[in-house]
Amino acid sequence: MIFFFTLLILHAAQPTTTAAATITTNAATITSLHGYGDTQVLALKKLNWAQQQTVTANCFIQRSRSEKNAIILELHNRDYCYGPRSDWNKKVLKNLLSDQIRVDSLQSRIKILISKGLNQELSNAQIPLVSGAKLQTLNYIVTVGLGGRNITLIVDTGSDLTWVQCEPCGACYNQQEPLFNPSKSPSYKPVLCKSTTCENLASATGTSGVCGFNSSTCNYYVSYGDGSYTRGDLANDNLVLGTTLVQDFVFGCGRVNDGLFGGVSGLMGLGRSALSVVSQTYGVFEGVFSYCLPSVTNGGSGSLILGDDTSLYKNFTPFSYTNLISNTMMPTFYFLNLTGISIGGVSLQDSGFGKNEMLIDSGTVITRLKPAVYNALKTEFLKQFSGYPKAPAFSILDTCFNLSAYEQVEIPTLKMHFGMDDATLTVDVTGMLYFAKADASQVCLAIAGLSDEEEIGIIGNYQQKNTRVVYNTKASTLGFAKETCSLD
Ligand SMILES: *[C@@H]1O[C@H](CO)[C@@H](O)[C@H](O)[C@H]1NC(C)=O
Ligand SMILES: *[C@@H]1O[C@H](CO)[C@@H](O)[C@H](O)[C@H]1NC(C)=O
Ligand SMILES: *[C@@H]1O[C@H](CO)[C@@H](O)[C@H](O)[C@H]1NC(C)=O
Ligand SMILES: *[C@@H]1O[C@H](CO)[C@@H](O)[C@H](O)[C@H]1NC(C)=O
Protein backbone atom coordinates (compact mmCIF):
# COMPACT_ATOMS: atom_id res chain seq x y z
CA MET A 1 0.00 0.00 0.00
CA ILE A 2 1.25 3.45 -0.82
CA PHE A 3 1.17 6.15 1.80
CA PHE A 4 1.79 9.81 1.59
CA PHE A 5 2.19 12.52 4.12
CA THR A 6 -0.27 15.26 4.66
CA LEU A 7 0.88 18.55 6.00
CA LEU A 8 -0.77 19.98 9.05
CA ILE A 9 0.05 23.18 10.75
CA LEU A 10 -0.02 22.70 14.47
CA HIS A 11 1.05 26.08 15.60
CA ALA A 12 2.93 28.91 14.01
CA ALA A 13 5.93 30.96 15.03
CA GLN A 14 6.32 29.19 18.31
CA PRO A 15 8.38 31.44 20.54
CA THR A 16 10.29 28.76 22.34
CA THR A 17 13.86 27.63 22.41
CA THR A 18 13.24 24.23 23.88
CA ALA A 19 10.77 22.70 21.47
CA ALA A 20 12.04 19.44 20.15
CA ALA A 21 11.90 17.28 17.10
CA THR A 22 11.08 13.77 18.14
CA ILE A 23 12.32 10.76 16.25
CA THR A 24 10.45 7.56 16.74
CA THR A 25 12.19 4.46 15.56
CA ASN A 26 12.17 0.92 16.85
CA ALA A 27 15.45 1.54 18.48
CA ALA A 28 15.16 4.79 20.31
CA THR A 29 13.59 8.15 20.77
CA ILE A 30 16.05 10.91 20.16
CA THR A 31 15.29 14.47 21.03
CA SER A 32 17.30 17.29 19.54
CA LEU A 33 17.15 20.81 20.90
CA HIS A 34 17.27 23.92 18.80
CA GLY A 35 18.37 27.31 19.91
CA TYR A 36 16.32 29.33 17.44
CA GLY A 37 13.04 31.04 18.16
CA ASP A 38 11.20 31.67 14.93
CA THR A 39 9.98 28.29 13.73
CA GLN A 40 6.80 26.57 12.56
CA VAL A 41 5.90 22.97 13.24
CA LEU A 42 5.15 20.68 10.31
CA ALA A 43 3.41 17.45 11.24
CA LEU A 44 4.04 14.57 8.89
CA LYS A 45 0.94 12.49 9.29
CA LYS A 46 0.44 9.33 7.34
CA LEU A 47 -2.64 9.10 5.16
CA ASN A 48 -3.77 6.46 2.77
CA TRP A 49 -2.74 7.67 -0.64
CA ALA A 50 -5.20 5.60 -2.68
CA GLN A 51 -8.13 6.71 -0.54
CA GLN A 52 -7.20 10.35 -1.01
CA GLN A 53 -7.26 9.87 -4.78
CA THR A 54 -10.82 8.60 -5.01
CA VAL A 55 -12.09 11.72 -3.27
CA THR A 56 -10.49 14.04 -5.78
CA ALA A 57 -11.34 12.53 -9.16
CA ASN A 58 -12.71 15.58 -10.96
CA CYS A 59 -13.72 19.02 -9.83
CA PHE A 60 -14.96 20.77 -12.92
CA ILE A 61 -16.86 23.13 -12.52
CA GLN A 62 -15.42 25.54 -9.96
CA ARG A 63 -18.08 27.49 -8.14
CA SER A 64 -18.50 31.23 -7.95
CA ARG A 65 -20.56 33.81 -6.16
CA SER A 66 -21.01 37.55 -5.82
CA GLU A 67 -20.81 39.44 -2.60
CA LYS A 68 -21.05 43.17 -2.20
CA ASN A 69 -19.15 44.68 -5.11
CA ALA A 70 -16.85 41.76 -5.63
CA ILE A 71 -16.87 38.42 -7.37
CA ILE A 72 -15.49 35.33 -5.72
CA LEU A 73 -14.33 32.52 -7.99
CA GLU A 74 -13.35 29.16 -6.58
CA LEU A 75 -9.75 28.30 -7.26
CA HIS A 76 -8.39 24.76 -7.32
CA ASN A 77 -4.99 23.37 -7.91
CA ARG A 78 -5.28 21.49 -11.18
CA ASP A 79 -3.62 18.44 -9.67
CA TYR A 80 -6.52 18.18 -7.25
CA CYS A 81 -9.02 17.97 -10.08
CA TYR A 82 -7.63 15.13 -12.11
CA GLY A 83 -7.73 11.39 -11.64
CA PRO A 84 -5.32 9.13 -9.79
CA ARG A 85 -1.63 9.76 -10.03
CA SER A 86 0.36 6.68 -10.82
CA ASP A 87 3.75 7.59 -9.52
CA TRP A 88 4.28 10.44 -7.08
CA ASN A 89 8.00 10.67 -7.63
CA LYS A 90 7.75 10.81 -11.43
CA LYS A 91 4.98 13.34 -11.27
CA VAL A 92 6.76 15.77 -8.98
CA LEU A 93 9.93 15.42 -11.03
CA LYS A 94 7.99 16.31 -14.17
CA ASN A 95 6.43 19.28 -12.38
CA LEU A 96 9.85 20.62 -11.43
CA LEU A 97 11.21 20.14 -14.95
CA SER A 98 8.25 22.02 -16.38
CA ASP A 99 8.74 24.70 -13.76
CA GLN A 100 12.35 25.13 -14.84
CA ILE A 101 11.26 25.50 -18.48
CA ARG A 102 8.85 28.26 -17.44
CA VAL A 103 11.54 30.03 -15.45
CA ASP A 104 14.10 29.77 -18.27
CA SER A 105 11.55 31.13 -20.70
CA LEU A 106 10.57 34.00 -18.38
CA GLN A 107 14.24 34.89 -17.92
CA SER A 108 14.95 34.90 -21.64
CA ARG A 109 11.87 36.97 -22.36
CA ILE A 110 12.97 39.47 -19.71
CA LYS A 111 16.49 39.59 -21.18
CA ILE A 112 15.12 40.29 -24.65
CA LEU A 113 12.81 43.02 -23.36
CA ILE A 114 15.62 44.66 -21.43
CA SER A 115 18.04 44.55 -24.33
CA LYS A 116 15.66 45.71 -27.01
CA GLY A 117 13.17 47.96 -25.30
CA LEU A 118 9.50 47.89 -26.15
CA ASN A 119 9.51 50.32 -29.05
CA GLN A 120 11.35 47.94 -31.22
CA GLU A 121 9.29 45.36 -33.00
CA LEU A 122 10.11 41.84 -31.92
CA SER A 123 9.99 38.98 -34.33
CA ASN A 124 8.21 35.76 -33.42
CA ALA A 125 11.44 33.87 -33.25
CA GLN A 126 12.85 36.23 -30.66
CA ILE A 127 9.96 35.84 -28.27
CA PRO A 128 10.30 32.54 -26.57
CA LEU A 129 7.55 33.08 -24.09
CA VAL A 130 4.63 35.15 -23.08
CA SER A 131 3.41 33.14 -20.22
CA GLY A 132 4.14 29.83 -18.62
CA ALA A 133 5.78 27.55 -21.09
CA LYS A 134 4.45 24.16 -20.15
CA LEU A 135 1.14 25.25 -18.81
CA GLN A 136 1.09 22.11 -16.81
CA THR A 137 2.71 24.03 -14.02
CA LEU A 138 0.31 26.95 -14.16
CA ASN A 139 -1.80 24.87 -11.99
CA TYR A 140 -4.61 26.98 -10.59
CA ILE A 141 -7.92 26.95 -12.46
CA VAL A 142 -11.25 28.84 -12.34
CA THR A 143 -14.55 28.58 -14.22
CA VAL A 144 -16.05 31.60 -15.97
CA GLY A 145 -18.90 32.17 -18.41
CA LEU A 146 -18.02 33.02 -22.03
CA GLY A 147 -20.50 33.46 -24.87
CA GLY A 148 -23.29 31.88 -22.81
CA ARG A 149 -21.48 28.81 -21.51
CA ASN A 150 -19.13 27.80 -18.72
CA ILE A 151 -15.48 27.40 -19.44
CA THR A 152 -12.53 26.41 -17.24
CA LEU A 153 -9.29 28.37 -17.50
CA ILE A 154 -5.82 28.37 -16.00
CA VAL A 155 -5.08 31.50 -13.97
CA ASP A 156 -1.86 33.29 -14.95
CA THR A 157 -0.58 36.57 -13.53
CA GLY A 158 2.43 36.32 -15.88
CA SER A 159 0.50 37.02 -19.09
CA ASP A 160 -2.24 39.26 -20.42
CA LEU A 161 -4.22 37.73 -23.25
CA THR A 162 -7.05 35.39 -22.24
CA TRP A 163 -7.70 32.69 -24.84
CA VAL A 164 -9.76 29.55 -25.34
CA GLN A 165 -9.58 26.73 -27.87
CA CYS A 166 -12.08 27.49 -30.60
CA GLU A 167 -14.09 25.77 -33.32
CA PRO A 168 -13.44 25.24 -36.15
CA CYS A 169 -10.09 24.13 -34.87
CA GLY A 170 -7.08 23.57 -37.12
CA ALA A 171 -5.24 21.74 -34.35
CA CYS A 172 -6.36 21.56 -30.76
CA TYR A 173 -4.99 19.58 -27.83
CA ASN A 174 -7.44 17.41 -25.89
CA GLN A 175 -9.60 19.20 -23.39
CA GLN A 176 -12.28 18.02 -20.97
CA GLU A 177 -14.99 20.49 -21.92
CA PRO A 178 -16.43 20.86 -25.44
CA LEU A 179 -14.59 23.37 -27.62
CA PHE A 180 -15.85 26.95 -27.65
CA ASN A 181 -18.01 27.41 -30.72
CA PRO A 182 -18.35 31.05 -31.87
CA SER A 183 -21.25 30.23 -34.17
CA LYS A 184 -23.30 29.19 -31.12
CA SER A 185 -22.79 32.55 -29.46
CA PRO A 186 -24.90 35.41 -30.88
CA SER A 187 -22.77 37.91 -28.96
CA TYR A 188 -19.47 36.78 -30.55
CA LYS A 189 -17.78 39.39 -32.77
CA PRO A 190 -14.37 39.26 -34.43
CA VAL A 191 -12.02 42.15 -33.64
CA LEU A 192 -11.07 44.12 -36.73
CA CYS A 193 -7.45 44.21 -37.72
CA LYS A 194 -7.42 47.97 -38.11
CA SER A 195 -8.31 48.71 -34.50
CA THR A 196 -6.64 49.88 -31.29
CA THR A 197 -7.48 46.54 -29.71
CA CYS A 198 -5.56 44.71 -32.40
CA GLU A 199 -2.65 47.13 -31.94
CA ASN A 200 -2.62 46.40 -28.20
CA LEU A 201 -1.57 42.84 -28.96
CA ALA A 202 2.03 43.92 -29.35
CA SER A 203 2.37 44.95 -25.70
CA ALA A 204 0.19 42.12 -24.42
CA THR A 205 1.81 39.24 -26.27
CA GLY A 206 5.04 40.57 -27.77
CA THR A 207 3.69 39.91 -31.25
CA SER A 208 1.59 42.38 -33.24
CA GLY A 209 -1.80 41.42 -34.56
CA VAL A 210 -1.98 40.86 -38.30
CA CYS A 211 -4.87 40.94 -40.73
CA GLY A 212 -6.36 37.54 -41.35
CA PHE A 213 -7.17 36.03 -44.75
CA ASN A 214 -10.48 37.72 -44.41
CA SER A 215 -8.65 41.02 -43.91
CA SER A 216 -11.32 42.12 -41.42
CA THR A 217 -10.14 39.83 -38.62
CA CYS A 218 -7.15 40.37 -36.32
CA ASN A 219 -4.93 37.32 -35.97
CA TYR A 220 -2.93 36.85 -32.78
CA TYR A 221 -0.03 34.58 -32.04
CA VAL A 222 1.37 33.66 -28.64
CA SER A 223 4.48 31.52 -28.62
CA TYR A 224 6.06 29.66 -25.72
CA GLY A 225 9.70 28.74 -25.23
CA ASP A 226 9.16 25.00 -25.31
CA GLY A 227 7.29 24.98 -28.62
CA SER A 228 3.84 25.46 -27.10
CA TYR A 229 1.72 28.14 -28.71
CA THR A 230 -1.76 29.43 -29.46
CA ARG A 231 -2.78 31.10 -32.70
CA GLY A 232 -6.18 32.35 -33.79
CA ASP A 233 -8.52 35.32 -34.13
CA LEU A 234 -8.94 38.09 -31.66
CA ALA A 235 -12.62 38.38 -30.74
CA ASN A 236 -15.17 40.00 -28.45
CA ASP A 237 -17.82 38.19 -26.48
CA ASN A 238 -19.68 38.39 -23.20
CA LEU A 239 -17.60 37.28 -20.23
CA VAL A 240 -19.40 36.40 -17.02
CA LEU A 241 -17.35 36.45 -13.84
CA GLY A 242 -19.61 35.14 -11.10
CA THR A 243 -22.65 37.34 -11.79
CA THR A 244 -20.81 40.24 -13.38
CA LEU A 245 -21.22 40.63 -17.11
CA VAL A 246 -18.31 42.09 -19.04
CA GLN A 247 -19.59 42.97 -22.49
CA ASP A 248 -17.28 42.82 -25.50
CA PHE A 249 -14.49 41.18 -23.57
CA VAL A 250 -11.44 40.80 -25.82
CA PHE A 251 -9.98 37.31 -25.96
CA GLY A 252 -8.20 34.97 -28.32
CA CYS A 253 -10.25 32.38 -30.18
CA GLY A 254 -7.47 29.81 -30.60
CA ARG A 255 -7.62 27.79 -33.83
CA VAL A 256 -4.19 26.21 -33.63
CA ASN A 257 -2.95 25.41 -30.14
CA ASP A 258 -0.38 23.05 -28.86
CA GLY A 259 1.32 22.34 -25.58
CA LEU A 260 0.73 20.67 -22.28
CA PHE A 261 -2.28 22.65 -21.22
CA GLY A 262 -3.53 19.78 -19.10
CA GLY A 263 -7.04 19.35 -20.47
CA VAL A 264 -8.11 22.86 -19.52
CA SER A 265 -9.97 24.95 -22.14
CA GLY A 266 -7.64 27.93 -22.12
CA LEU A 267 -5.97 30.57 -20.03
CA MET A 268 -7.01 33.68 -18.11
CA GLY A 269 -4.41 36.46 -18.24
CA LEU A 270 -4.18 38.54 -15.07
CA GLY A 271 -1.13 40.58 -16.06
CA ARG A 272 -0.86 44.37 -15.96
CA SER A 273 -1.17 45.48 -19.58
CA ALA A 274 -4.11 46.60 -21.70
CA LEU A 275 -5.70 43.31 -22.75
CA SER A 276 -5.61 41.50 -19.39
CA VAL A 277 -8.78 40.67 -17.46
CA VAL A 278 -7.65 43.17 -14.82
CA SER A 279 -7.45 46.01 -17.35
CA GLN A 280 -10.63 45.05 -19.19
CA THR A 281 -12.68 44.95 -15.99
CA TYR A 282 -11.15 48.13 -14.55
CA GLY A 283 -14.50 49.91 -14.69
CA VAL A 284 -16.09 47.29 -12.44
CA PHE A 285 -13.34 46.02 -10.16
CA GLU A 286 -11.05 49.06 -10.23
CA GLY A 287 -7.97 47.05 -11.08
CA VAL A 288 -7.97 45.04 -7.85
CA PHE A 289 -7.86 41.27 -7.52
CA SER A 290 -6.56 38.84 -4.95
CA TYR A 291 -6.09 35.16 -4.47
CA CYS A 292 -5.53 32.59 -1.78
CA LEU A 293 -3.81 29.50 -3.20
CA PRO A 294 -4.70 26.27 -1.43
CA SER A 295 -2.17 23.47 -1.08
CA VAL A 296 -2.73 20.29 -3.11
CA THR A 297 -2.21 18.06 -0.16
CA ASN A 298 -5.00 19.45 1.96
CA GLY A 299 -7.24 19.43 -1.11
CA GLY A 300 -8.88 22.69 -0.17
CA SER A 301 -10.41 25.25 -2.45
CA GLY A 302 -8.92 28.66 -2.68
CA SER A 303 -10.48 31.79 -4.07
CA LEU A 304 -9.81 34.40 -6.69
CA ILE A 305 -11.59 37.60 -5.71
CA LEU A 306 -12.09 40.34 -8.25
CA GLY A 307 -12.76 43.71 -6.65
CA ASP A 308 -11.54 45.62 -3.65
CA ASP A 309 -13.67 44.58 -0.73
CA THR A 310 -11.39 43.87 2.19
CA SER A 311 -14.30 42.51 4.27
CA LEU A 312 -14.33 39.41 2.05
CA TYR A 313 -10.81 38.41 3.05
CA LYS A 314 -10.45 35.92 5.87
CA ASN A 315 -6.94 36.87 6.82
CA PHE A 316 -5.90 36.27 10.40
CA THR A 317 -2.85 38.50 10.35
CA PRO A 318 -2.93 42.17 9.32
CA PHE A 319 -2.12 43.05 5.71
CA SER A 320 1.23 44.49 4.89
CA TYR A 321 1.41 46.41 1.64
CA THR A 322 4.29 47.36 -0.61
CA ASN A 323 4.54 49.32 -3.84
CA LEU A 324 4.50 47.52 -7.16
CA ILE A 325 7.43 48.65 -9.25
CA SER A 326 6.52 49.71 -12.76
CA ASN A 327 8.86 48.63 -15.46
CA THR A 328 7.85 50.15 -18.77
CA MET A 329 9.92 47.61 -20.66
CA MET A 330 7.93 44.78 -19.08
CA PRO A 331 4.39 46.10 -18.62
CA THR A 332 2.86 42.66 -18.07
CA PHE A 333 4.75 41.69 -14.95
CA TYR A 334 4.28 42.47 -11.27
CA PHE A 335 7.62 43.46 -9.75
CA LEU A 336 8.45 44.03 -6.09
CA ASN A 337 11.44 45.61 -4.36
CA LEU A 338 13.05 42.81 -2.32
CA THR A 339 14.77 44.45 0.64
CA GLY A 340 15.59 41.48 2.83
CA ILE A 341 15.12 37.85 3.74
CA SER A 342 15.19 36.27 7.17
CA ILE A 343 15.18 32.62 8.15
CA GLY A 344 14.38 31.55 11.70
CA GLY A 345 14.69 35.18 12.76
CA VAL A 346 18.18 35.58 11.30
CA SER A 347 18.50 38.25 8.58
CA LEU A 348 20.56 37.33 5.56
CA GLN A 349 23.08 39.85 4.30
CA ASP A 350 23.29 40.71 0.61
CA SER A 351 24.36 43.85 -1.19
CA GLY A 352 21.60 43.36 -3.77
CA PHE A 353 18.75 43.85 -1.28
CA GLY A 354 16.86 47.07 -2.09
CA LYS A 355 18.42 47.25 -5.54
CA ASN A 356 16.89 44.32 -7.33
CA GLU A 357 13.41 43.78 -8.64
CA MET A 358 11.71 40.50 -7.90
CA LEU A 359 8.82 39.11 -9.92
CA ILE A 360 5.73 37.72 -8.20
CA ASP A 361 4.08 35.06 -10.31
CA SER A 362 1.12 32.72 -9.89
CA GLY A 363 2.44 30.30 -12.52
CA THR A 364 5.97 29.58 -11.31
CA VAL A 365 5.95 26.90 -8.63
CA ILE A 366 9.28 27.15 -6.79
CA THR A 367 10.71 30.52 -5.68
CA ARG A 368 14.02 31.39 -7.37
CA LEU A 369 16.64 33.50 -5.65
CA LYS A 370 19.87 34.98 -6.99
CA PRO A 371 22.74 32.54 -6.41
CA ALA A 372 24.43 34.54 -3.61
CA VAL A 373 21.17 35.04 -1.71
CA TYR A 374 20.20 31.43 -2.16
CA ASN A 375 23.55 30.23 -0.87
CA ALA A 376 23.25 32.44 2.20
CA LEU A 377 19.74 31.11 2.82
CA LYS A 378 20.82 27.51 2.40
CA THR A 379 23.78 27.90 4.76
CA GLU A 380 21.64 29.48 7.47
CA PHE A 381 18.83 26.95 6.97
CA LEU A 382 21.25 24.03 7.31
CA LYS A 383 22.67 25.58 10.48
CA GLN A 384 19.23 25.83 12.05
CA PHE A 385 17.60 22.72 10.61
CA SER A 386 20.43 20.52 11.77
CA GLY A 387 20.68 16.95 12.90
CA TYR A 388 18.39 15.50 10.25
CA PRO A 389 19.74 12.84 7.89
CA LYS A 390 20.60 14.25 4.47
CA ALA A 391 19.11 12.96 1.22
CA PRO A 392 20.29 13.43 -2.38
CA ALA A 393 19.42 16.57 -4.37
CA PHE A 394 16.20 16.39 -6.39
CA SER A 395 16.08 18.18 -9.74
CA ILE A 396 16.50 21.92 -9.06
CA LEU A 397 16.30 21.40 -5.27
CA ASP A 398 19.65 20.76 -3.63
CA THR A 399 18.94 20.84 0.11
CA CYS A 400 17.22 17.56 0.93
CA PHE A 401 16.60 15.38 3.95
CA ASN A 402 15.30 11.93 4.82
CA LEU A 403 12.50 12.68 7.26
CA SER A 404 10.74 9.34 7.06
CA ALA A 405 11.49 8.56 10.68
CA TYR A 406 9.94 11.77 12.03
CA GLU A 407 6.39 12.44 13.07
CA GLN A 408 6.89 16.16 13.05
CA VAL A 409 9.66 18.64 12.42
CA GLU A 410 10.22 22.23 13.42
CA ILE A 411 11.08 24.40 10.45
CA PRO A 412 12.71 27.82 10.61
CA THR A 413 10.28 30.48 9.41
CA LEU A 414 11.12 32.17 6.10
CA LYS A 415 10.20 35.83 5.76
CA MET A 416 10.68 38.01 2.70
CA HIS A 417 10.69 41.77 3.14
CA PHE A 418 9.70 44.29 0.51
CA GLY A 419 9.94 48.03 -0.09
CA MET A 420 10.51 50.95 2.20
CA ASP A 421 7.39 50.08 4.20
CA ASP A 422 8.91 46.68 4.97
CA ALA A 423 5.92 44.60 3.86
CA THR A 424 6.49 41.00 4.88
CA LEU A 425 5.58 37.72 3.25
CA THR A 426 5.77 35.04 5.94
CA VAL A 427 5.97 31.77 4.05
CA ASP A 428 3.42 29.24 5.29
CA VAL A 429 4.90 26.08 6.73
CA THR A 430 3.29 24.07 3.89
CA GLY A 431 5.41 26.09 1.47
CA MET A 432 8.78 25.27 3.03
CA LEU A 433 9.47 21.66 2.07
CA TYR A 434 8.88 19.83 -1.20
CA PHE A 435 8.13 16.10 -0.95
CA ALA A 436 10.11 14.36 -3.68
CA LYS A 437 9.18 10.99 -2.19
CA ALA A 438 5.74 10.29 -0.78
CA ASP A 439 7.26 8.45 2.20
CA ALA A 440 9.26 11.57 3.16
CA SER A 441 12.59 9.83 2.57
CA GLN A 442 13.54 12.70 0.23
CA VAL A 443 12.14 16.06 1.31
CA CYS A 444 13.79 19.24 0.08
CA LEU A 445 13.89 22.91 0.94
CA ALA A 446 11.41 24.24 -1.64
CA ILE A 447 13.54 27.13 -2.90
CA ALA A 448 16.05 27.13 -5.75
CA GLY A 449 18.97 29.28 -6.82
CA LEU A 450 19.05 30.97 -10.23
CA SER A 451 21.87 30.09 -12.56
CA ASP A 452 23.39 33.57 -12.61
CA GLU A 453 23.27 36.83 -10.68
CA GLU A 454 21.83 38.70 -13.68
CA GLU A 455 18.61 36.72 -13.66
CA ILE A 456 15.54 38.08 -11.91
CA GLY A 457 14.24 36.49 -8.70
CA ILE A 458 10.73 35.04 -8.79
CA ILE A 459 8.30 34.42 -5.94
CA GLY A 460 6.64 31.15 -6.88
CA ASN A 461 3.18 29.88 -5.97
CA TYR A 462 4.49 27.19 -3.60
CA GLN A 463 5.60 29.94 -1.22
CA GLN A 464 2.33 31.89 -1.61
CA LYS A 465 0.07 29.13 -0.30
CA ASN A 466 -2.35 29.99 2.49
CA THR A 467 -1.68 33.68 1.99
CA ARG A 468 -4.10 36.31 0.70
CA VAL A 469 -2.18 38.17 -1.99
CA VAL A 470 -3.88 41.40 -3.07
CA TYR A 471 -2.88 43.05 -6.35
CA ASN A 472 -4.03 46.65 -6.56
CA THR A 473 -3.08 48.03 -9.97
CA LYS A 474 -4.91 51.30 -9.28
CA ALA A 475 -2.87 52.18 -6.20
CA SER A 476 0.07 50.18 -7.59
CA THR A 477 0.44 48.16 -4.40
CA LEU A 478 0.57 44.54 -3.42
CA GLY A 479 -0.41 43.18 -0.01
CA PHE A 480 0.12 39.96 1.92
CA ALA A 481 -1.69 38.47 4.90
CA LYS A 482 -1.99 34.96 6.28
CA GLU A 483 -5.24 33.19 5.46
CA THR A 484 -6.34 29.59 5.54
CA CYS A 485 -7.67 29.22 2.02
CA SER A 486 -11.27 28.14 1.52
CA LEU A 487 -14.11 29.25 -0.70
CA ASP A 488 -16.76 29.65 1.97
C1 LIG B 1 -22.55 27.44 -15.33
O1 LIG B 1 -22.27 26.85 -14.07
C2 LIG B 1 -23.14 27.31 -13.03
C3 LIG B 1 -22.65 26.70 -11.73
O2 LIG B 1 -22.51 25.33 -11.83
C4 LIG B 1 -24.58 26.89 -13.36
O3 LIG B 1 -25.44 27.37 -12.36
C5 LIG B 1 -24.95 27.52 -14.69
O4 LIG B 1 -26.24 27.09 -15.05
C6 LIG B 1 -23.97 27.13 -15.77
N1 LIG B 1 -24.27 27.89 -16.96
C7 LIG B 1 -24.37 27.33 -18.14
C8 LIG B 1 -24.74 28.24 -19.26
O5 LIG B 1 -24.23 26.14 -18.32
C1 LIG C 1 -15.28 37.62 -43.37
O1 LIG C 1 -15.81 38.90 -43.11
C2 LIG C 1 -17.17 39.06 -43.42
C3 LIG C 1 -17.61 40.47 -43.14
O2 LIG C 1 -16.56 41.31 -42.92
C4 LIG C 1 -18.01 38.07 -42.64
O3 LIG C 1 -19.36 38.16 -43.00
C5 LIG C 1 -17.51 36.66 -42.85
O4 LIG C 1 -18.22 35.76 -42.02
C6 LIG C 1 -16.04 36.57 -42.55
N1 LIG C 1 -15.54 35.25 -42.83
C7 LIG C 1 -14.82 34.54 -41.95
C8 LIG C 1 -14.37 33.21 -42.39
O5 LIG C 1 -14.52 34.97 -40.85
C1 LIG D 1 15.43 7.03 5.42
O1 LIG D 1 15.45 6.86 6.79
C2 LIG D 1 14.84 5.64 7.22
C3 LIG D 1 14.73 5.64 8.73
O2 LIG D 1 15.86 6.21 9.32
C4 LIG D 1 15.66 4.48 6.71
O3 LIG D 1 15.10 3.27 7.12
C5 LIG D 1 15.64 4.54 5.19
O4 LIG D 1 16.46 3.52 4.64
C6 LIG D 1 16.13 5.89 4.70
N1 LIG D 1 15.84 5.98 3.29
C7 LIG D 1 16.73 6.38 2.41
C8 LIG D 1 16.30 6.38 0.98
O5 LIG D 1 17.85 6.72 2.73
C1 LIG E 1 13.82 49.69 -2.83
O1 LIG E 1 13.96 49.84 -1.43
C2 LIG E 1 15.17 50.45 -1.06
C3 LIG E 1 15.32 50.37 0.45
O2 LIG E 1 14.20 50.89 1.11
C4 LIG E 1 15.17 51.89 -1.58
O3 LIG E 1 16.38 52.51 -1.23
C5 LIG E 1 15.02 51.84 -3.10
O4 LIG E 1 14.93 53.15 -3.61
C6 LIG E 1 13.79 51.05 -3.50
N1 LIG E 1 13.78 50.89 -4.94
C7 LIG E 1 12.70 51.14 -5.68
C8 LIG E 1 12.83 50.93 -7.14
O5 LIG E 1 11.64 51.51 -5.19
TrEMBL record:
Pfam families annotated for this entry?
TAXi_C, TAXi_N
Q: What is the lineage of its organism?
A: Eukaryota, Viridiplantae, Streptophyta, Embryophyta, Tracheophyta
Q: Where is the active site?
A: D156, D361
Keyword Cytoplasm (UniProt): no
Keywords, comma-separated and alphabetical = Signal
> Is Signal a UniProt keyword of this protein?
yes
Q: Which organism is it from?
A: Mikania micrantha
Can you supply a Gene Ontology BP term from the record?
A: proteolysis
- Molecular function as annotated in GO: aspartic-type endopeptidase activity
* Identification of the protein by name: Peptidase A1 domain-containing protein
Q: Domain Peptidase A1 spans what residues?
A: 140-481
